[in-house]
């Protein structure tokens, strides 16, 4: 793996954002020139010469002119920057010192500290900041440092809330549990595992709070309740405002300084957020596997299909092929068992010589006839083919198993037939004939017409495929009203019949339940009921039992078998489980790295697997294999010999 | 009988949420001897994961006692737990979330070693040994978890569990997120490590065939209670308990003929149980 393939860092992504870079440069210039005020100013900011009052910019010795007291504006701007920025920084540091530890403790330990600190944060946030600062000034006198100290306390819930939420999110991660079991002290866990996660949000929050502190501080001074003995941007605003009719330009310089600084901080904050979130989203995508296809898509009968949601599921399947960074070194997996090594050389698709599918011509008697299907992602030099030359037929009343490991292209093939390939994916070659109709050249809209009545779909994750905000009943009956033209009452009756048919004991109750009120097995039955509700000719089931308990799986398979023979459906069952294949399939196509390596009827495939990959897969199933006692006995005999 | 490493006696765990109490485990009693694998099988909600987590100190037991090497660890303090981590480790189910995405493999593996006060150089040497042990290339040390496949990440998680040379490893569904061929290789690695190091496993899984492959003794759980326990041969091929029978018969066999027979037997069980009800 070359270093150029390495995922780019947050800094790289930040630097690639031109706006953020401009913001950073502006802020750096402002900070630097304030820091170097004694070198750059050329005049004493407090030196007053009444004779020189209100000199115009570019006067001799006064590049930005002078104010009402004849003081050099350029010098006051630079020295004022020191005071203003340091004041804002003081507020930020105080807010961070209070907010971050409190957030960490509340988020990590919870319990009473959490309740008390949330209550305190609410209290602080509900107090009007300006009023508190005015009161403090009245009691403690005008000092920018005291007011910024107090303002820091007022700002601290900003940090507290962000940190607490982030910590609560990572606290439940398995790697935090693993660290506990590894014997790490809480302080080490917080430092190593928790702070790394909350670091990003803290930095972003800091840039925003700094801007707020600067703005509030200037606002106070502009109102004249600040400490006017020191030069600061807010004091300069105040003075400029008082002489707005005589020399309006004196108001411009501090406004510019404050405005530019605040704008730069906001831009930097946004840039940081974008840079960090890009990283976050990619890892979240890998973490959250196999999810969300809405029920409407699942039942495939409503015209509106959440293709975006489908994307994630499908991309996951494609991930090992499409993302160079993810699947780097599978070679170490293959080192372990030598026989797998020769699988690197996958021959041309076996359908051309070893299957009943010799004919390259589409089979007119089949419900679905796929020929030389190729699916690719992207275009140009970076395009990736995830399905190569796939040909298969499914007849009415037949169940075809599409078997393979993750990344084999089985789900991609199914989605290509459904016309639901994720963004960036397309059929680059071949044909898909459904009842004699070519699907690859049809528009998405016209394929949509087919869903439900022509082709239906059962997803893997039943729970995430029902919309949590609608009752089960409406999710079942709406598609039937749209597709079959039933009225509300008829759709309800039919939905209840279907629920009864899929073995749900109290159809009425389930009909009126929300998805969270039913179990995973029930949800899958509901989705199956939805899929068969419009009597489709072809049913595509993508790992329909993988997320279910094994006893529930057996029942769902029984149901699928019954429905399939009742309705004479053609079924494509995508699975990785050879037991499921043996149980329900008539024919099997084995996929590896985007090609079908072997295709045969189910009896022959299990009795005489021809392709070495099929043999390896069948050899890896544990079901019906030796027990640990057998293994130990064999090992002992081996050692004895 | 060989020396008991861990004894679980009448363990019970309640979870309280919004003032309603839910009993996750009841009257769980079993023990694990040095060097053996005890398989814990059950479906979702059976409480199998909770048993592992309470042994590890991640879930406080409500009732009963846990004895590890003759010492009562039921309510061990955090300090005591840190000590115990030398002897008791874990491999979690999900290889995607059990490794901190922002640490390198070396950082992950050195963590338990450093926590026990082993110096940096020695830790580095041990990390190389561990990678070798789980058959990952030694240049893996400098890489991030996301650069590895699921099976490889699970090898990293196994290496982390082995780092402190524990006597007991709780394996919580460690192969259920893996592909078929990867799954078998990882299971064989578990067995090989056990033969070499003599550590004991509490192996938690929903899959009876996985349990059969790695366990010497098997415990079947249903709704927080033990329904059957015994030697692997007996429990996984000729179980007495009706639930275990159903569990076994529900798993389809990768052989169309044999599966047809199994399906018919399952159907018979189903009809019988419906008649009984």
Work out the helix count of chain A: 25
**Mean pLDDT, all residues of chain A:** 81
Radius of gyration of chain A: 34 Å
Structural class of chain B: alpha/beta
**H/I helix tally of chain B:** 10
> Uncertain runs of chain B with pLDDT below 50, 5 residues or more?
none
Assembly state? heterodimer
Summarize this structure briefly.
The complex is a heterodimer of chains A (641) and B (277). Chain A has 641 residues and is α/β, with parallel strands linked by helices.
What features would you highlight for this structure?
heterodimer, A: 641 residues, six-stranded mixed β-sheet, 25 helices, 10 strands, disordered N terminus, B: 277 residues, alpha/beta, four-stranded antiparallel β-sheet, globular
Structural account:
Chain A is built from 25 helices and ten strands. By secondary structure, chain A is α/β, with parallel strands linked by helices. The model of chain A is unreliable at 1-6 and 280-358 (pLDDT under 50). In chain B, 41% of the residues lie in helices and 25% in strands. In chain B, helix 3 (105-115) crosses helix 4. Chain B starts with a strand and ends with a helix. Chains A and B meet through helix 8, helix 9, helix 11, helix 14 and helix 21 of A and helix 2, strand 6, helix 3, helix 5 and helix 6 of B.
Question: Which helices and strands occur, and which strands form pairs?
Answer:
The complex is a heterodimer of chains A (641) and B (277).
Chain A: H1 10-15, H2 18-35, H3 37-40, H4 73-109, H5 111-126, H6 129-140, H7 144-171, H8 174-181, H9 186-222, H10 233-242, H11 249-287, H12 295-299, H13 307-322, H14 331-336, E1 368-377, E2 384-394, E3 399-403, H15 410-418, E4 425-434, E5 437-438, H16 444-450, E6 455-458, H17 472-484, H18 488-501, H19 507-511, H20 520-532, E7 538-542, H21 550-567, E8 570-575, H22 578-584, E9 587-592, E10 595-601, H23 602-607, H24 612-620, H25 628-640
Parallel strand pairs in A: 3-8, 3-9, 6-7, 7-8
Antiparallel strand pairs in A: 1-2, 1-4, 4-5, 9-10
Chain B: E1 4-17, E2 20-33, E3 37-41, H1 48-55, E4 63-68, E5 71-72, H2 78-84, E6 88-91, H3 105-115, H4 120-133, H5 150-162, E7 168-172, H6 180-197, E8 200-205, H7 208-214, E9 217-222, E10 225-231, H8 232-237, H9 242-250, H10 256-276
Parallel strand pairs in B: 3-8, 3-9, 6-7, 7-8
Antiparallel strand pairs in B: 1-2, 1-4, 4-5, 9-10
């Amino acid at each position: 793996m070359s270093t150029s393939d390495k995922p780019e860092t947050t800094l790289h992504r930040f630097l690639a954002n031109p706006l953020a870079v401009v913001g950073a440069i502006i802020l750096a210039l402002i900070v630097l020139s304030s820091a170097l005020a004694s070198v750059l100013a050329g005049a004493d900011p407090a030196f007053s010469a009444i004779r020189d009052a209100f000199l115009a910019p570019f006067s001799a010795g006064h590049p930005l002119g002078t104010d009402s007291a004849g003081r050099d504006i350029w010098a006051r701007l630079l020295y004022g920057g020191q005071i203003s920025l340091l004041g804002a920084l003081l507020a930020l540091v105080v807010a961070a010192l209070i907010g971050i530890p409190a957030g960490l403790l509340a988020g990590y330990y919870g319990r009473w500290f959490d309740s008390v600190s949330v209550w305190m944060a609410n209290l602080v946030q509900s107090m009007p900041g300006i009023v508190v600062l005015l009161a403090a000034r009245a009691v403690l006198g005008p000092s920018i440092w005291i007011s910024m100290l107090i303002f820091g306390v007022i700002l601290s819930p900003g940090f507290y809330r962000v940190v607490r939420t982030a910590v609560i999110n990572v606290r439940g991660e398995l790697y935090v549990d693993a660290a506990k079991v590894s014997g790490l002290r809480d302080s080490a866990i917080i430092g190593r595992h928790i702070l790394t996660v909350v670091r990003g949000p803290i930095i972003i929050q800091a840039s925003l709070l700094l801007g707020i502190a600067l703005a509030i501080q200037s606002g106070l001074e502009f109102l004249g309740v600040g400490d006017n003995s020191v030069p600061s941007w807010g004091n300069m605003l105040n003075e400029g405002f008082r002489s707005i009719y005589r020399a309006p330009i004196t108001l411009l310089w501090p406004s510019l300084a404050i405005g530019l600084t605040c704008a730069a901080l906001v831009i930097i904050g946004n840039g940081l957020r974008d840079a960090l979130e890009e990283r976050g989203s990619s890892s979240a995508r890998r973490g959250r596997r196999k999810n969300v296809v809405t029920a409407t898509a699942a039942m495939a009968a409503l015209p509106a299909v959440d293709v975006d949601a489908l994307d994630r599921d499908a991309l996951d399947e494609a991930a090992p092929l499409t993302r160079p960074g993810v699947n780097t070194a599978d070679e170490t997996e293959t080192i372990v068992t030598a026989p797998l090594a020769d699988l690197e050389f996958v021959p041309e698709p076996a359908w051309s010589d070893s299957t009943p599918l010799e004919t390259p011509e589409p089979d007119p008697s089949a419900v679905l006839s796929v020929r030389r299907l190729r699916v690719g992602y992207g275009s140009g030099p970076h395009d990736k083919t995830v399905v190569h030359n796939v040909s298969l037929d499914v007849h009415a009343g037949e169940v075809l198993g599409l078997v393979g490991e993750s990344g084999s292209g089985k789900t991609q093939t199914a989605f290509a037939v459904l016309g639901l390939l994720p963004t960036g994916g397309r059929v680059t070659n071949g044909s898909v004939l459904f009842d004699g109709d070519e699907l690859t050249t049809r528009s998405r809209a016209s394929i949509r017409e087919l869903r439900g009545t022509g082709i239906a779909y059962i997803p893997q994750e039943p729970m995430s495929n029902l919309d949590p905000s609608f009752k089960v009943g409406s999710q079942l009956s709406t598609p039937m009203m749209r597709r079959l033209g039933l009225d509300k009452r008829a759709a309800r009756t039919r939905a209840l019949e279907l629920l009864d048919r899929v073995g749900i004991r109290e159809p009425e109750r389930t009909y009126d339940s929300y998805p969270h009120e039913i179990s995973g097995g029930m949800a899958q039955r509901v989705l199956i009921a939805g899929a068969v509700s419009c009597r489709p000719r072809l049913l595509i089931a993508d790992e329909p039992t993988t997320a279910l308990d094994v006893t529930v799986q057996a029942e769902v398979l029984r149901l699928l078998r019954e429905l399939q023979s009742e309705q004479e459906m053609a079924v494509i069952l995508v699975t990785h489980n050879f037991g499921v294949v043996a149980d329900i399939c008539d024919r099997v196509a084995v996929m590896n790295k985007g090609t079908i390596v072997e295709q045969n009827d189910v009896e022959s495939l299990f009795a005489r697997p021809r392709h070495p990959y099929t043999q390896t897969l069948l050899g890896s199933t544990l079901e019906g294999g030796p027990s640990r006692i057998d293994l130990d006995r064999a090992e002992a005999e081996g050692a004895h010999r | 009988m060989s020396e008991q490493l861990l004894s679980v006696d009448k363990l019970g765990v309640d979870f309280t949420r919004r003032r309603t109490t839910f009993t996750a485990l009841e009257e769980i009693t079993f023990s694990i001897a040095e060097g053996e694998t005890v398989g814990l099988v059950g479906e979702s909600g059976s409480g199998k994961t909770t048993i592992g987590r309470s042994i590890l100190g991640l879930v406080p037991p409500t009732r009963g006692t846990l004895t590890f090497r003759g010492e009562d660890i039921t309510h061990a303090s955090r300090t005591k737990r840190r000590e115990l981590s030398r002897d008791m480790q874990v491999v979690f189910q999900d290889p995607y979330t059990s490794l901190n995405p922002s640490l390198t493999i070396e950082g992950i593996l050195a963590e338990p070693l450093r926590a026990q006060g082993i110096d940096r150089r020695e830790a580095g040497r041990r990390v190389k040994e561990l990678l070798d042990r789980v058959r990952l290339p030694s240049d893996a040390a400098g890489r991030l978890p996301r650069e590895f496949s699921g099976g490889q990440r699970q090898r990293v998680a196994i290496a982390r569990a082995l780092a402190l040379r524990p006597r007991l490893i709780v394996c919580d569904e460690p192969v259920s997120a893996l592909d078929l061929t990867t799954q078998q290789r990882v299971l064989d690695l578990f067995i090989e490590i056990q033969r070499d190091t003599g550590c004991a496993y509490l192996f938690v899984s929903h899959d009876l065939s996985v349990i059969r492959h790695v366990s010497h003794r098997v415990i079947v759980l249903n709704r927080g209670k033990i329904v059957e326990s015994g030697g692997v041969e007996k429990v996984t091929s000729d179980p007495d308990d009706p639930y275990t029978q159903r569990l076994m018969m529900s798993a389809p066999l990768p052989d169309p003929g044999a599966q047809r027979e199994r399906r018919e037997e399952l159907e018979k069980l189903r009809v019988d149980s419906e008649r009984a009800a």
